[in-house]
Batch of 2 targets.
Target 1
Amino acid sequence: MHYDRLQATVAGFAGFVRQDLELHVKERALQLLKQIEHDIAANRMILPSLPEVAVRVRQLLGNADCSITALEQQISKDAAMAARLLKVANSSIMSRGNKVSSLHHAIVNLGFSLVGSLVTQMAILQTMSKSRDVGRLEGFVASSLRISSLSHSIADQFDHLDPELASLGGLLHDIGKLPLREYLYSNPEFSMDERLQFELILHPYVGAILLKHWSMPDVLIQIAFYHERIMRDSPGQLPDYIDVVLAANLMHYGTDQGRYRAFRNQPIPALQKCLRTDRLAELEGSIEDRMEMALALIEN
């Protein structure tokens, strides 16, 4: 799927746009979408970059010869990131009562997969923090961390899913809102209502572009692109990663009111596949444990 040059049509666009929006709003959004594509290509809309340490760590972990020493040397170049990794390693869920006093020890205890996920998440949170809209950013980060924790806990119920990948997908699913928000607010032609509408409609597409720009795995790009298709029904009886993040998103925001109220009392396939009634109590406990670890990524 070529997210960087997606050829959208009004008909196809309606597949992931709220059905209660008027046609002229969808058509204007489509025009804006094409303008955004053009402005990105012409470098008039600059996509944010990931911090260099995260890029290097991802490259190291992609190498079969990656060593603990090499990871330690790379992560230690960012003192704040190294300190937060130590804090996670000493959280109650990870430390098992044993104090972790060195970055080397933290990497050993956490393992390469979790270290890679945490470094990427910290880098993304660092990128988020550069947004000019500080007031809305705090709510955005809090929601992203909660949905990330929910995604991890849901995926952990299923042997065929990687909870860390689901967690990263939960953190990134709305990432397109940040550059899109900057773009919309730099254009005085849009009213406040239009900015909010276009942010809701277009953020899945812009998120997919941004994640492709960051060379993220295709599954994360798909999560960003499809997570607002609420009635999406994936093949088979087991959930995929899009189902997991979609379900986590709905669990966080609810359907009684707000943006998803149109889906209240509807049988949503992703929720039906993800929420195993025999493990709901266990799910609730694991969410709180995961939130403790997530908060260690942002608290000083």
Target 2
Amino acid sequence: MARLSLPLLVLLSLLLRWRFRTGRRNSLVTPFFDLRPVHAETDALDAKNSPYRLVQDKMDFEANDRVKVTLYTVGKPFRGFKVKSVDEHGQEVGRFEPGALYKALSECAAATHESRADKEHVEMHWLAPADRSGRVHFKLSPTMFGEFSV
């Protein structure tokens, strides 16, 4: 029985690993908050030709500062997005306040869509950490979701 159990466990673990690499993950938060889309029906956009814009009202922050981050489209509406905040060294920094059209992810310095409704404009607010100052950059998912199924 023990000889059969080990190969079965190995096969099961390989199948589970394959499933989570090819399908929708159970959580939006991964150790480094992967910005790649988890919906199989989406394609990555070339940033240079993207109809989506991400604008922040300031780059340098002091302790407890609040930065307005605006995501909008110059083309067709979008349904989903992911935005991550990093400092000048590429490390996650700060946190997003909860909003009506997005949810803040407390496990990482990021925000994502709250619903699949069409959006043309989302205004988010980011809060700087209480113990430091620096420069913040916001990274947008390489894919903006048009239509997808969950």
